[in-house]
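COMPLEX REQUEST
Ligand: thiamine diphosphate
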Amino acid sequence: MEKSKLIEMYRIMRLIRLIEQRINDEYKYDEIKTPIHLSIGQEAVAAGACIHLRKDDYIFGTHRSHAQYIAKGGDIKKMIAELYLRKTGCAYGRGGSMHLVDPDVGILGSSAIVGGNIPLGTGTALASKLQGNDRVTVVFFGDGAADEGTFHESLNFAALKKLPVVYVCENNFYAINSHQLARQVDDNIYKWAQNYGMLGYKIDGNDVLEVSDYAEKAILRCRNGEGPTLIECLTYRWKGHIGTVDDVGEGYRPKEEYDYWVSKCPIKRFSEYLKNMGVLNDELIKNIDEEIYGLIEEAFSFAQNSPKPSPDELLDFVYAD
Amino acid sequence: MPWTTVQVEKLDNFFISGDFTGNRILSYRDALHEAMDQSLARDPRVFIMGEGVDDVAGVFGTTKGLKEKYGANRVFDTPIAENSLTGIAAGAAMAGLRPILIHARMDFLLLSFDQLVNHASKWCYMFGGQVKVPLVVRTISARGWGSGAQHSQCIQGMLMNVPGLKIVAPATPYDAKGLMISSIIDNSPVLFVEHRWLYKTTGYVPEELYSIPIGRGVIHRRGEDITIVAVSYMLVEALKAAEKLQQAGISAEVVDLRTLKPFDEKILVESVEKTGRLLIADTGCKTGSVASEIAAVAAEKAFHLLKKPVKRVCCPDTPTPTSDVLEKAFYPTAEDICTEAVKLVKE
Ligand SMILES: Cc1ncc(C[n+]2csc(CCOP(=O)(O)OP(=O)(O)O)c2C)c(N)n1
Ligand SMILES: [Mg+2]
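STATUS: Structure written out below.
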């Protein structure tokens, strides 16, 4: 991979991390009046997959879609304004954190219904095929979504019709506090894909190079009309399921498990790798961070100073023009 | 032959002139076929998907031959996965296509509520009109010949409560064609409610492409004494009832709203203003039905015009029985409409 792309991937991961941390820090002021699901710890998945997408490719995210929106190039100011439920938000304050949208870069809306986005992304892939273009769709979802019928129905459909879609499962082992093995007989997600007749892989979702490598090949297969792929990325969320809590300890996640995964920080790992390769140095890291802090400052101040929707907008947009 | 076809073949050939006259007579089924055929021809974004849409029967004849004419990319069979199919069609619509998804029975629509209600119907509002879902979901209610509790439901009433979803229920061949074309052109998801017992009904239908505005009702028969609002197939029963009532000296006005949501409140109120009495005939079960909603609107907007309480003629609140004897007791007929209308006018 070219040097510039490596740095861009690092920058995106760092951008996700720092935005999420800022949201985490601001949440206590109660101005972000919407449920938030942070992606700290999972940055490599969105960054590695989206680096190979074009602006006109589609993605569909979930309730936990900040990272995906950022990685696909969604407008940051509009994203933060949406979290503040402002009129200037990407969904004009009608969506909130779980419903991010930016049609200009192929983000057609994220769904807060677990598994709900999987058919939609399968549908945009169907459209690409019927329209005869080479636009690819990436659908992101969690291990919990693999419990849902939509996952199975959609994979079967996509394999049958050889659709240009990449299913990226962010397996962080938990659906709220329910462990994968309390919901599924075995560690099966990628094998299901294989049984539906598509390529299915289980990879290290904290290794952005591995994610990028598998995603690049899957996306290329889509562009060549060779059908869908599922990539199950093992990763871990550092924060609790929702809000700013940690969900660690008795009744939640074991402390040792949490510590292990924090030690496997995807960003630390990648930056060390890049430093060893001579692609990254302390000065560049500092510059990148500074640029990002600037963006964040600008986005938060834009959001906090934006107007809220007015009550007379209530009945707008029930139907399309 | 599907068993509901057996039943439909036994029905009388009912002719409805509609609000259009001409010299070209078509069945409801052929009118639907023509609307989709012409839409496929004029707009490359239109395609048809659903279980069995390309088989020999062609969804009771409504899609017959379309795959041969337009190719397997535009008319294709699917796995039996109603919920995801609805989401897949919605996703394709978001990407700029105009899918027509077909559920051969309305009962199967129930499996798709997540994608229809949580997704397709909400997308425009939730994202401030930036992403549109121009999707048509055709759904066909059956009746008779032992269809039973899971192959005969008319659940349009349930879906009245879903913001963002338009619901049309044409009863005549003219309306079937015109509303199908409007539904395809519309940028919102439209639930297109059909009834098997309408398929053989015939009426005048123009050959050219035309549309009927969504949200506009029609008066099928003018009258002075009572307004009968009929939903879907109940229009046939209502027109038969009106004829009988005429012989008994009662002049009934028969109104078909055609669009159930958003419906034509003006035509309802104006008719009630004239007659002062309102009877609503719906194909669904009574509680929470379309009839209930029409009655509620009448109570809100035309209470002062009513001389008598509103009457709903619907199926009782039971699952559909399979026994032919119980089935007969279950479905309201023109006879029931007459009885209730006479009570409203004479008592
Ligand atoms: C259909 C549906 N059922 C339940 C929920 C409640 N819920 C919200 S997030 C969540 C867990 C999802 O887990 P997973 O798919 O692994 O995603 P993660 O939160 O781990 O990113 C659940 C059960 C929901 N939003 N939608
Ligand atoms: Mg999870």
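REMARKS: Chain B touches chain A at residues 47, 73-74, 78-79, 81, 83-97, 114-115, 118-119, 123-134, 163-164, 166, 186-188 (CB under 8 Å). DSSP finds 14 helices and 14 strands in chain B.
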